[in-house]
Structure formats: structure tokens, C-alpha cells
Prior knowledge:
Blueprint: E1 2-7, H1 10-22, E2 27-31, E3 36-40, H2 45-61, H3 67-71, H4 75-95, H5 102-106, E4 108-109, H6 110-114, H7 120-123, H8 131-152, H9 154-175, E5 181-182, H10 186-203, H11 211-228, H12 237-254, H13 265-287
Antiparallel strand pairs: 1-3, 2-3, 4-5
Helix pairs in contact: 4-8, 8-9, 8-10, 9-10, 9-12, 9-13, 10-11, 10-12
Amino acid sequence: MVIVYRAAHAQQCMERSLVLAAMGIDYAVRRDWWGWCLQVEEDAVAEASAQIDLYEQENRALPAVSNASQRGVGVRMGVLVYTALLLSMFVLQGKYAYGTDWTSAGRVDVAAIYSGEYWRMITALTLHRDLWHLLGNLGFGAIFAVFLSRQLGGGVTWLAILVAGALGNGMNALVQPPTHLAIGASTAVFAALGLLAAFYFFFGHLNRNSWARRWAPLVGGLWVLTWLGTGDENTDIVAHLTGFLAGLLLGSLMGKIPKPKKDEAGVQITTGLVALGVIAGAWGFAVR
Length: 288
């Protein structure tokens, strides 16, 4: 047997061995002192080498997948709109623009939600108590959303985050006293974390043969929740937890349906506009 190909990893030899098998060439894949090698009978060396060369030329000729396709459509745009929206609401909130007390009109008010003002579960996600509160949610929200957008596309990602964030606020209202008040995008930020953990756990491409790798997304998500989700007396820890749980719930449901087309611009634009429309509609109810 004569060596016609060497590689550091067995997979590379196995890929080329399939080419030889398709051509009816006997082969052997063995490990030696350097790594892995592909061997054939001496009288088949010329033909085997030629077939391997053709295989490698065809692979080099394949068009490269664009970065935009790998990332999904609307990743940057989604982050820009998220940033512009929260900054704009922070300015309106601080200036009592148009004679409106935006905080009182849009915050989570458990008693008001019980009385039917369900839009507060959405509007509260756009309000913040100070600049540091805002910057923290802008930063971590953008990071989690970018990772999720690379899999789902920008529009689908932000609509999912909005739905999970609102659901998280609703779950929080169920366990808080009627006097509880809250504002901040952090519920949506941790909902994004929950969505990300659920996505990789339910239909990410992970090695299911290892217990540690299989459960890594959920364990990692809980670790980040513990690290970022606790703080001083102004931190609504329960809202962070319910946001994360809402993200896990929605992510598990998304894992049961066909994966959204992250590269289809129409899908991403439509879902992104729906998310903005829902926010605008909620604020319309709040200030009417």
C-alpha cells in the first residue's frame, strides 16, 4: 500500500476516501507517527492521486458564502434601530416632551395591568431610570441580539425579543404585589439571553454525545443571568428571571417549527416592522 494523502485529522482522509470509493478504488485509512494517511494499492496510485486532485480543485472552485449570508439579514440595522429607539425614549422621558409624563404613562404598574392596561408590559421596556441603566441595557441587549440574529436574522430576532420581554413583564406582574412599579429593557435583555440559550439547546448544532456540551447553553445562560441579573436594591431580580424564563419558553416553541429564513430580506423586514408597529401601538394606548 502506498500513501497518496496525509492529514492531521482523520476527517480529511475520510472525505477523500469517499471519492476513491465512488471510483471503485480500494483504499485504507490509517494512523501513523505524523497523523492520518490514505493508502491505495501501488498500481492505483496515479488514478487515486488524480481523483483527489480533482476533488480539491472542485472544492476550491466553490463560491465563498458571503458574510452577510452567514450573519443573516438585518443584524446591524436591528441594533441601530434598538439603540435609536431607547435613546429617543430616554430623551422624551427626561424632558417630559409634549407635556407627557412618559414614565408614569408607560412603566410597569401591576395594579394598572390588573385593570387592563396590558400595553405597559411593552412600553416599560423602552424606559430607563438613568443613563447608566440605559447604557447597560443597550450594551448587553445588542450583544445577545447580535448572536441570535446570526441564526435567525435581525427582524425575527427583535420581534422574538419583544414578545418574550413583554411576556416576562406579564409573568413578573403575576408574582408582584399591586403596588409594584418597574421600568427598563433589562427584562427583554434577559429574554434575549433565554432565547439564545433555548435556540442552541433545542436546534443548535451541538455534540449531543456529551452531557456537558448538550447542556452547556442552558448552564451558560443561567450563569450569565446570575452574573448580570443581580445587583442593588434598584434591581428587579424577579423581572430578570421571568424575562429569562419567557425567552426559554418562546425559544423552545420556536424549536418546534421550521427555522426562519435568516437570509430572506422580506421576512426580516416584515417582522422588524411588526415589532416597531407593536411598540408604536402600545405607546399610542399609553398616551391617548
